[in-house]
Specification:
By secondary structure, the protein is α+β, with helices and mostly antiparallel strands. It is 49% helix and 15% strand. It has helices spanning 7-37, 42-88, 106-148, 167-174, 191-204, 326-332, 345-355, 366-380, 391-399, 407-413, 426-446, 452-459, 463-469; strands at residues 151-156, 162-165, 208-213, 220-227, 234-239, 254-255, 277-285, 295-304, 307-317, 360-363, 388-390.
Amino acid sequence: MLTGLSLRFRIFLLFAGVAAASCAVVGAALYFGYTRIAETTPASGFLLAGILSIFGLLAISVSIWLLFDENVAKPVQRLSAAIRTTAHANVDASIDFEEAKYLGDLAPAAHAVAWRLTNDSAETDELVSDATAQLASEREQLALLLTEIPVAIVLVSSTHKIMLYDGQAADILEQVHVPRLSASIFDYFIEEEVRAAYDQLIELKTEIAVDVKGARGNLNFQLRLKKLRGMSGYMILIDDATARIAPEAPRPLIYDFEAAQHHFEKEIEERSLRDLSFVVFDTETTGLMPNKDDIVQIGAVRVVNGRVIPGETVDQLVNPGRPIPAASTGVHRITDDMVANAPDPITAISKFHAFAKDSVIVAHNAPFDMAFLHRYGHLSGHAWDHPILDTVLLSAVVFGADQVHTLDALCTRLGIEIPIALRHTALGDAQATAQALCKLLPLLSSHGLNTFGEVIEQTRKHGRLLKDMN
């Protein structure tokens, strides 16, 4: 009935109603107190009238607050979240006109702005798509050319962080450690030997050849180090004779040249979110009790510089050492036969620990999954002391605690589609969570939250959500 009136007039009616109700309550209280004077004393009558007035005004205030919260505050919060999502996450977020019906022309105006942003973004995306296609073509040609070169290539920053590696290098590095962008080159080769070679390279300013041992000490490599022209850092060339990669296998070119600009010397709380490397993971288990159940699958992907890095994944079945309950198989579709030859939980988690080194761990409802990691960590001697972000809490910071924060709800809100075949698989859910993280990062920035410490401070306000989920 009121939706046809202007917003200003409805606000006037609201305040007029508050005033009328307050007058009515005070008047009724005074009348009731007056009727009691004959039975008691005037002072008692006025005291009773005052008490009744106070409780009556409090009841009016609470009622008005509930109405305002439900019909104004919550719709405004959701409307602003929809606009931010459209503007910063490149998602065509829907606006619920029925929910915002008491906000006058605000919802249609916001929809018009969002529609305009979407159209402008589509036009820009088309231009970017053309340029990206050209770059992708050039990148494929470069990757093919590198494939023909009989050496593996790794580009390393002056702070000894990996900026680029090709398919040959990935296969060779994996013999020592899981290949990872922004990881230290010392994770793969003995630090003292690499530093000595680098110091010699800086002094001679030319190419040098050196024999180094793998970080685990069980492999030897012949490396050539070359200074990079026009940028800091150096190139490592490795004879690919020890590579196990098949000639016909895909050989992706993985790179992040901004790794050289990241400020690793800062404390984690002071570092920008864009300077951090994230490992987003999920587990499938025999049940929902971390103190008794076991992992049957672990999946993980890496996010560097706000994007999911192709090829840097973990997709590992795990043998729990006992039968998998039929109810659990019904959810994740993992059977005893599938895990018969898989590694045990401690072995699998130890490998994942290496994959997650020097990264922020991210999960949806992290306490559940982390409980398994901590339990196995006690048995294997691995300390899971990584910084942790939970996308449940990030969702609450961005969209408000009153929203639903399941993985499905978050992905729907951010325009992320989880293929049915991948839902409730560890890697599928990890990939969906990683995509959500990539869209949440710019939304957090739009709220003025740019450092890890600022984000953690906000997520602590919503810790109750995780307690309710576990």
